[in-house]
C-alpha cells in the first residue's frame, strides 16, 4: 500500500505508541530537522527494536496547560513551539496540527493557530531501517476567542460582539503594531451603550476634528474613537505592548479613566510640537497641546475637567488654567506603575519649578505642598537664561518661546 508519509498526510492505519508499522513496499519518510523527505526502506515485518521505542510531544507558549487532560489552552492567535519527546532512534518527524494547514517535517516546529477551536495534534516519528511510530492527542490545543484589549489580526479571533480594530485588513502602525479586540462605545455612532465587564469606555478621538457621530464619517484611523478598553491599576494588568494610563472617559470627555492602551497619544507633560511652533492637539490623550516651552506640552484645561493623578491644576499669570505634570510623583519606583513622566530637560525652556512666580508664565497651584515642583516654563533673570530658543521678560520671570519670524 502507499505510505502516507510520502504524501505529507496522516498515517491512516491504526498505529499507536509502542506498536510497529508493517509495510510491504519501500516508503518515503520525513527528513531530519528542516530537511526534505527522503526515501527509506521500512521492514516488511514488525521489528522487535521498534517495540522498545517511545514517542510523545510537548508544547510551549500555552496560556495554561491542563495536565490532567493533556490540553494546551490559550487565546487566538496562539503561537506554540512543539518538541518531540522521543527515543534517540527516532530521527525524522512529521507533524499534523489539526487545523487544515500544511504538515511540517521540522523536528521542533513553531505553529500559529489563527482561529478559536479545539485541535488534534499528531506526530509521526521514523527510525530509519526500523519503522515508524505515531502519537496523537485529541483536543490537545484549545484556542479561546480573544477578549477586549487583546491583540488580534482578524475579527474571527475576537470574542462575540468584539471586532479587530486595526487588524490585518486596515493596519494602524506604528500606534498599534497589530489589531486590537474591542467594541466602539459611542452610542451616537451605533456603538455599544455598555462596555463588557472588566472594560471601560475610553475616548481616543480627542484633538481630532470631531468625534465620530451618526452624522459624521468614521475616521480614517479606526482607533480614533471611543473604544472599550481593559480597566487597570498598573501595567501588569495589561497585555504585552500596552500600558495602564489615564485616558479621557468617552465620549463625553468629562472625566478620566484608567485603561490599557499604547503610549500614544501622549500623557500630560509630554512634548507635542516642533521648533516652528506647530502644535498637534491630536498627539495628546487630553486633546490639548498647550503653548508651553519651546515645543508645546500636552495639558488639559482644568477649568473644564479635573486633572488626572500625578498632575495638578496650575493658574498662570496670563489667565490660563492648565494641568501640569509634577516632577516628583511620576516616573519613579513609587509611581504605582503609572509609567515614566516625560522629562523636563528635553525642552530648553522648561524645568522642574515651584509655583508662585510672577509674570504671564508664572503660576500658582492650590492644595499641593509648597515643596512640590512641576514641569513648567523655566525661571529666568535675563535673556541669556532662555537663549537661543526663548526670551526672558524684562525684570525676570519665566522663559517664553520666541515668536516665529514672519
Question: What do these coordinates show?
Answer:
This protein is mainly β and 406 residues long. The chain folds into three domains: 4-144, Immunoglobulin-like; 151-230, no CATH class; 281-401, no CATH class. Helix content is 0%, strand content 32%. It is built from no helices and 28 strands. The protein has strands spanning 27-29, 38-40, 55-60, 64-66, 71-75, 78-86, 92-96, 110-113, 117-127, 131-144, 151-152, 163-165, 179-182, 199-203, 226-230, 243-249, 256-261, 288-290, 297-299, 311-316, 321-325, 350-353, 363-365, 374-377, 379-380, 390-391, 397-398, 400-401. The strands form ten sheets. A five-stranded mixed beta sheet has the order 4-5-10-9-7, with no helix packed on it. Strands 15-14-16-17 form a four-stranded antiparallel beta sheet, with no helix packed on it. Strands 3-6-8 form a three-stranded antiparallel beta sheet, with no helix packed on it. The N and C termini lie far apart (87 Å).
Number of strands: 28
Largest sheet: 5 strands, mixed
- How many helices does DSSP assign? 0
Mean pLDDT across the residues is 82
List segments where confidence is low: pLDDT < 50 over at least 5 consecutive residues: 1-45, 329-341
Look at the structure and name the CATH superfamily of the largest domain. Answer: Immunoglobulins
Largest sheet: spatial strand order: 4-5-10-9-7
**Count of distinct structural domains:** 3
What gap, in angstroms, lies between the N and C termini?
Answer: 87 Å
Q: What portion of the residues fall into strands of 2 or more residues?
A: 25-35%
CATH C-level label of the largest domain: Mainly Beta
Listing every helix as H and every strand as E from the N terminus to the C terminus, the arrangement reads EEEEEEEEEEEEEEEEEEEEEEEEEEEE
- Identify the overall geometry: elongated
Instruction: Give the proportion of residues in helices.
Output: under 10%
Class per helix and strand makeup: mainly beta
Could you name the CATH topology of the largest domain?
A: Immunoglobulin-like
Q: Do you know the CATH architecture of the largest domain?
A: Sandwich
Q: Radius of gyration over alpha carbons?
A: 31 Å
